[in-house]
Amino acid sequence: MERGLSRVFMGSFAFVASFLLASFTEAAEMLPLFRATALDSGDPAPLEIEIQADFSQILGRRYGYGTDKKARLRVPAEIRLVGDEAKRYPVVQMAEISGRGALRGNECSFPPLKIEFQGRPAAPSYFQGVDEIKVVTHCGKNVLGRSATLQEQLLKEFTVYRLHALAAAPANFQARLAWVRYIDTSGQMDEVNDYAIFVEDISDLTKRLGAKRLFSHKDVGLKSYDPTRLTTRVDQFSAKEWVEMLMFQTMIWNYDFEVGHNLKGIVGEGGWKPVPYDFDYSELFYRRVGEIPTNTWMAFPYRCLSKAQVDEMVSFYKQVGQEMTKLIRATKYVSYESKQIAIANIESATRYFEQMPRPHNDEEVSPCSER
Predict the structure, then answer these.
(1) Long-range contacts for 218-227 (Cβ within 8 Å, ≥24 apart)?
(2) Contacts of 269 (CB under 8 A, 6+ apart)
(3) pLDDT at 96
(4) Which of 37, 162, 182, 296 is most buried, judging by how many CB atoms fall within 10 Å of its CB?
């Protein structure tokens, strides 16, 4: 659904869309996992799913802040659909699951999960073409100390993924809301039923776009690791691509990212591009912020862009802001009070874009360097 909404919008602003997305090949047909029927509100219907595994081996461990990904305990899992999709895809899918996450992997009583398949399942599996899935769980603990319930926090984060699709599709991590029944096969834990977000893995995103991935130091142990695509500095990215990402993060009032943290990278014809994820720290729905922090727009790499590039991006994000506002008003997954906060924050960010000083360059300065 997210990509469908985005395509309607992009068709209305083709000149801007081509400017932003020309670096990538046309996205392939969306895989079944990330398709969703639309509810009356326009919201995507949750995927109803059941996961059976020995969760007693996963919960209670720590996974974040330096945990060796290769050393994570993986346990066998059976995954089956239990909603309308089960009529078309009744087969049980075997996989392995493990705990993951940085903050949430350390602090949550029910940590985020990773589902890994042995090779991408083939049709008629519901998970055909999918390598891995990041599962954002309900956490089980209010690690951010917000007044919203855990369920409200998860639904707001899912909505931010939908907003990012409006701004960046197809170069965004696809996300699917799910209602998950977790069944512990050891018998030591009660059944748990709650919302989760299924997020596309970087390997599937690059396959979908026909792009190559970038790596951080945390990826050195991967078989696919390529030191020529190691990212350690902002100036390795295209200045335009980096600033576009900054503008979206400003729209959602999120500053919890840096090179190697809550950003993956891909290689396109327009240069190296950062792709954000993990929007739990976004303040969009929680706090009406009057002033944008003064450190939001630094001299680098913004100063390397041309005035025309910035004007075009501002025009694009002004239209994106209108589409974001429409989506937020329509969704049933967010309360009325939170919607009002979000709309005010989007309007504030849009005004700032229009008023911020423009670079003096007639042409983009390339390569752009901090030095």
Answers:
(1) 218/69, 218/260, 221/68, 221/69, 221/70
(2) 22, 23, 24
(3) 96
(4) 182
Question: Both tokens of residue 329?
Answer: 């008003």
CA distance 171 to 270: 13
Given a cut of 90, whether residue 51 has pLDDT beyond it is yes
Q: Considering the chain, what is the average pLDDT of its residues?
A: 88
Angle at 247 (CA atoms; ends 246, 253), nearest 5 degrees:
85
Classified as helix, coil or strand, 122 is coil
Query: DSSP states of 57-75 as a string?
Result: GTTT----SS--GGG---E
Per-residue pLDDT, averaged over 114-134, amounts to 93
Largest Cα span, the chain: 67
Q: What are the domain boundaries of the chain?
A: 2-355
Residue 14: per-residue pLDDT: 40
- Report yes or no: 144 and 268 within 8 Å, Cβ to Cβ: no
Vertex 292 angle, CA 5 and 6, to 5° = 5
For residues 62 and 316, what is the distance between their CA atoms, to the nearest angstrom? Answer: 42
pTM of the model: 0.90
Percentage of the residues of the chain whose pLDDT score is greater than 70: 87
The per-residue pLDDT for range 340-359, each reduced to its tens digit, is: 999 999 999 999 999 888 99
What distances in angstroms separate CA 17 from CA 23, 171, 302, 315, one per listed residue? Answer: 11, 12, 20, 11
Query: What is the C-alpha end-to-end distance of the chain, expressed in Å?
Result: 43
DSSP at 305: S
Q: What sign results for the dihedral spanned by CA atoms 70, 74, 77, 82?
A: negative
